[in-house]
């Protein structure tokens, strides 16, 4: 099908279809991404690009005071959040998906319910839970007291030891419906005779889930793992709205997204924006996420089994 | 597949009893955890701050609409809502137009470079545009689009194009070639075939693509935070943070505001939950 045989009219028609979206993508996705790489090699004064400084912004952010300690602390928080969310967001999501796939009475209702928080804005979720986690008047501590766990009530967002975990739990509440329904779609794609064959061979329910269903939903696992990874390392809205731009208390909830925002825009009012170090952070976050998710995707894909 | 009686049998047959009971308890417990906070948010909107602090679990007096009236009359709620509608609507219109154009060209015509162009669009799926915020900021400044609604529409359109090209190309490829050929024999032009024959068939995919993009755009906080300062141009999520700051100690009004902000999308979700779930997980689910 060589396009050279096409009449001129059709060639113009296809160009009319393709060129505008292509130009738009180039201008507002590709160019900004490429520019970010260039910007990171410059020293900036406010909104002005001043001197080419080579790798200085990168080495500052990774190795030198006052940047490096903040970078690495934030990075370690991102890692912790990611690990915990793998368990309580993706893990619980898989369990819920399996439960929903049993088509017990009310499963349609439960499916709609688990996905409801997913469609709400992070702003609503963050602000509601910020009030609910209020030490004295918050819903969370009141429910704890009511259930007889009064001794455990604590200012969850006010303590360095608990704040990050409180935010992580709120994130899991917000998003658990997403992996749930991705896994559910995966389970429903398994041909019923495979599961039936297992049952006829007398495997118990645990073996069925761990040895048959889990390996067969590997494609869903790939997607939910990678999306969670990308999300955890770009985490911004929830900590920004619930813990503030400094990652209160005492930086215990500081993550890379917040640090990047503070560096690039945080001091907008005082005119002390630092686009150079900000770009270096963004580029490294981008490279880290892109490289790890590419490698991980390849490894995860390898364990996916083709269902004939 | 799931509609056959056989599926239902295997889905339920063995291990009724205890296993299913535990799973049922898990589901009911989870739905409670999901819905209870949202329910309390709504109920507290009807209470005075004193009632919230004193009797948090008591049912409110539902005829007490003071808090809602305060939100609607004392804050710029309708302004924020209108901005969100305009920005989301404009973005979806642009995303669907540009995305369907590209997808149609790539799905229905084969030409040198078409695969490369398709992959070029797909590469955009991998890139979180958030991390290009500094160059976007400079670009918007140069285009005089800082602090405008149009600037947000441009960015959301860029953000939505890759997934839309992906969803629409996948669907348009499945439409049979015979339809096109028949119309061509009848003398229809390429444009006419696209507009009158193919696009009407592509409507379900367009709905999915629209929801896939509309929900994150409607809910977005990050881009307005960076780009919009003027109060009259703020979106609903952004405006919400502004008035939260103003009413920090008035919990009744706060929860009324949160409830009103959650209401539009919640109602649409309950009416169209199937399309919402399909739309938001599309790309993640084959």
Word description of this protein:
The complex is a heterodimer of chains A (308) and B (286). The mean pLDDT of chain A is 92. Chain A has 14 helices and two strands. Chain A has one domain: Orthogonal Bundle (MetI-like fold). Chain A has 308 residues and is mainly α. Chain B is mainly alpha-helical and 286 residues long. Mean pLDDT of chain B is 91; it is low at 1-14.
Write the layout of secondary structure elements.
The complex is a heterodimer of chains A (308) and B (286).
Chain A (H helix, E strand, L loop, with lengths): L7 H32 L2 E4 L2 E5 L3 H8 L3 H35 L5 H9 L6 H11 L6 H8 L16 H13 L1 H13 L2 H9 L4 H12 L1 H16 L3 H7 L12 H11 L8 H28 L6
Antiparallel strand pairs in A: 1-2
Chain B lengths: L4 H8 L4 H28 L4 H6 L11 H9 L2 H32 L5 H10 L9 H10 L6 H24 L4 H9 L4 H12 L1 H17 L2 H6 L8 H11 L4 H21 L1 H9 L5
Helix pairs in contact in B: 2-14, 4-14, 5-8, 5-11, 5-13, 6-8, 8-11, 9-10, 11-15, 13-14, 14-15
What's the overall geometry of chain B? globular
* CATH class value of chain B: Mainly Alpha
N-C termini distance of chain B = 15 Å
Straight-line N-to-C gap of chain A: 32 Å
Number of E-type strands of chain A: 2
H-E string of chain B: HHHHHHHHHHHHHHH
Give the uncertain stretches of chain A in residue-range form: none
* β-strand amount of chain B: under 5%
Could you list the spans of chain B in which at least 5 consecutive residues all have pLDDT below 50? 1-14
Overall spatial form of chain A: globular
Count structural domains of chain B.
1
């Amino acid at each position: 099908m060589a396009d050279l045989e096409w009449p001129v009219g059709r060639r113009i028609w296809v160009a009319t279809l393709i060129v505008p979206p292509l130009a738009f993508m180039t201008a507002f996705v590709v160019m900004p991404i490429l520019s970010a790489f260039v910007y990171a090699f410059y020293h900036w004064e406010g909104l002005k690009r001043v001197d080419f400084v080579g790798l200085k912004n990168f080495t500052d952010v990774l190795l030198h005071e006052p940047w490096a300690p903040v970078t690495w602390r934030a990075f370690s928080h991102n890692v912790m959040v990611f690990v915990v969310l793998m368990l309580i967001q993706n893990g619980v999501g898989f369990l819920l998906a399996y439960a929903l796939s049993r088509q017990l009475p009310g499963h349609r209702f439960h499916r709609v319910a688990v996905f409801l928080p997913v469609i709400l804005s992070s702003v609503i979720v963050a602000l509601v839970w910020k009030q609910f986690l209020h030490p004295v008047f918050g819903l969370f501590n009141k429910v704890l007291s009511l259930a007889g766990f009064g001794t455990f009530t604590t200012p969850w967002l006010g303590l360095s030891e608990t704040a990050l975990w409180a935010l992580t739990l709120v994130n899991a509440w917000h998003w658990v419906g997403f992996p749930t329904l991705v896994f559910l779609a995966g389970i429903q794609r398994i041909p019923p005779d495979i599961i039936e064959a297992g049952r006829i061979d007398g495997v118990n329910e645990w073996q069925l889930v761990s040895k048959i269903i889990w390996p067969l939903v590997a494609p869903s696992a790939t997607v939910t793992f990678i999306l969670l990874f990308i999300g955890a390392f770009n985490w911004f809205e929830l900590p920004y709205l619930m813990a503030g731009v400094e990652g209160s208390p005492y930086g215990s909830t500081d993550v890379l997204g917040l640090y990047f925002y503070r560096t690039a825009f945080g001091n907008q009012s005082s005119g002390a924006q630092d686009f150079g170090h900000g770009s270096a952070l963004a580029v490294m976050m981008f490279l880290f996420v892109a490289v790890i998710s590419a490698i991980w995707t390849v490894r995860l894909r390898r364990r996916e089994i083709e269902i004939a | 597949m799931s509609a056959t009686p056989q599926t239902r049998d295997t889905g339920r047959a063995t291990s009724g009893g205890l296993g299913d009971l535990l799973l049922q308890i898990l589901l009911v417990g989870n739905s409670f955890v999901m819905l209870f906070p949202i329910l309390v948010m709504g109920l507290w909107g009807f209470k005075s701050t004193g009632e919230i602090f004193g009797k948090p679990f008591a049912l409110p007096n539902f005829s007490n609409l003071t808090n809602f009236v305060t939100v609607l009359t004392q804050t710029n709620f309708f302004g924020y809502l209108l901005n969100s509608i305009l920005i989301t609507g404009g973005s979806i219109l642009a995303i669907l137009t540009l995305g369907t154009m590209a997808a149609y060209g790539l799905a229905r015509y084969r030409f040198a470079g078409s695969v490369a162009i398709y992959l070029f669009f797909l590469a955009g799926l991998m890139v979180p545009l958030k991390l290009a915020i500094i160059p976007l900021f400079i670009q918007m400044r140069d285009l005089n689009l800082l602090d405008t609604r149009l600037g947000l529409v441009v960015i959301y359109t860029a953000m939505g194009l890759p997934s839309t090209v992906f969803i629409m190309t996948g669907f348009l490829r499945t439409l049979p070639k015979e339809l096109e050929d028949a119309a061509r024999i009848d003398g229809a032009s390429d444009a006419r075939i696209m507009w009158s024959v193919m696009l009407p068939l592509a409507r379900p995919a367009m709905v999915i693509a629209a929801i896939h993009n509309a929900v994150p755009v409607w809910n977005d906080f990050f881009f307005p935070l960076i780009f919009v300062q003027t109060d009259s141009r703020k979106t609903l999520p952004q405006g919400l943070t502004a008035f939260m700051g103003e009413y920090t100690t008035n919990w009744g009004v706060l929860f009324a505001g949160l409830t009103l902000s959650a209401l539009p999308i919640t109602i649409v979700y309950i009416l169209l939950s199937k399309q919402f779930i399909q739309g938001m997980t599309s790309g993640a689910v084959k």
